[in-house]
Amino acid sequence: MILQHTQFHPLLLPGVGSPVLVLPFVIELAVLTRGLYTRKSTDIVLAAVAVPCLVVSTWATVEGLNPSGGVYWGEVFSIIAGGILTLFVVIDCIIGSAVKARASG
């Protein structure tokens, strides 16, 4: 009997085997959590955008666990949803920095 060496990686779910599915999921959860614990309107709007992205990433992860599911584009959908949300967060950060710089200057 040959034992295979399995390497632990914090971004891998057991059975999924791809950090591509887990990373957008983590980003979406972080944005949703930030929106729940702050009272800033932009954080709440970003959290509202994070909910559909979270649904897509959850669906992609569940389909990744089911080898006979017939869905081959789950990782792509998860990357697109996480990428759109990340783009919105970066734009919010840039706009926030520009407003603070203009107010202080």
Key terms for this structure?
membrane; 105 residues; 0% strand; transmembrane; 3 helices; disordered N terminus; single chain; mainly alpha
Question: Your description of this structure?
Answer:
- The chain has 105 residues and is an all-alpha fold.
- It has one domain (19-104).
- Helix content is 71%, strand content 0%.
- It is built from three helices and no strands.
- The protein has helices spanning 19-37, 41-65, 74-104.
- The longest helix has 31 residues, at 74-104.
- The chain is elongated.
- It starts with 18 loop residues before the first helix and ends with a helix.
- Keywords: Membrane, Transmembrane, Transmembrane helix.
- The chain crosses the membrane at residues 12-32, 44-62, 77-99.
How much helix is in the residues?
Answer: over 70%
Give the CA-CA distance, first to last residue.
70 Å
Strand proportion, as a percent range, falls in under 5%
Low-confidence stretches: 1-6
Structural class: mainly alpha
Name the shape in a single word: elongated
Summarize the helix and strand pattern as letters: HHH
Radius of gyration using CA atoms only: 18 Å
Average of per-residue pLDDT values:
77
> Structurally, how many domains make up the residues?
1
- Give the beta-strand count: 0
Summarize the entry for a quick read.
The chain has 105 residues and is an all-alpha fold. It is built from three helices and no strands.
